[in-house]
Amino acid sequence: MMRKIYLVDDDEDDRIMIRQALESVAEEIEIVELTNGKQLLFFLEENPSMEPSLILMDMNMPIMNGVEALSALKNRTHLRHIPVVFISTSENPNFVEQGYQLGANAYIVKPNTLDGYQRIAHAITLCFLNSYLPATRKGPLRKSKGKNVVVIEDNPDYAALMGILIKRDAPGLHVIHQSSAESAINFFESLDKTASAAIDLIIVDLYLPARKQGLDVLAWLRMSFMDKGIPIAPIVVLSSSGHHQDIQASYRLQANAYIVKPADPAGSFSFLTDLCSVWWETMSFPNKPASGIV
Prior knowledge:
Elements: E1 3-8, H1 12-25, E2 29-34, H2 37-46, E3 54-57, H3 66-74, E4 84-88, H4 93-101, E5 106-109, H5 114-128, E6 148-152, H6 156-168, E7 174-178, H7 181-189, H8 193-197, E8 201-204, H9 211-228, E9 235-239, H10 244-252, E10 257-260, H11 265-268, H12 271-282, E11 283-284
Parallel strand pairs: 1-2, 1-3, 3-4, 4-5, 6-7, 6-8, 8-9, 9-10
Antiparallel strand pairs: 5-11
């Protein structure tokens, strides 16, 4: 199935680099290039049948910048489910935090090398196009020691396998399994503000065992972290469902990414370590205090 990607950036050279990197690794994609936020919104409204699977957008653009465009996008009910990834030259943590507060799914700092653009393409392909590629990293996962990953999965065999494969390449990583929506909520409620801020990634099944439980967990997590006044960790939905309604509902509740479970988990869940790598080494996220989970 052909997937559309809207690439919104006023810098032609950057558009070329991103396009070439994506087209070198992703199959069946069509990239539509736009140069500012106003053009994006007009194109979305005038071409409803050409809704994209993903929007890649710069922050600093003329006429309407990325922040203004994202705000307008998320205020339109019929468009807010479209995932948006900021790709910006700025590493300013205030801009990073602002992007996520407005509803961006990810924030990536533009690289200076071809290899950097390849890493971006790998991250986008894995997290948003449901296509796993061999890892671009070499050796064990960097930046994993002391990290905390919460896996919310009601299938005990899947949960055990996921934990084994994640820790195989990241032995210093702490995997915390929750087997139901109720146990996950109870776990997060037991954490104080510091411990909550120490969660680095949340992987959640959508059907726990029903769709409603998964969506309720997504909504509750956002509200809970907001009430505590701390940035939430990236939330990746990992589901056996590839239905558009499930994907759109998850993105409306601000899941950062949605990945369809592989048909053969035993042979394919190995991408999970790369998923951690993507969020800790390629994406930028608001700074949080370092702490362990008791």
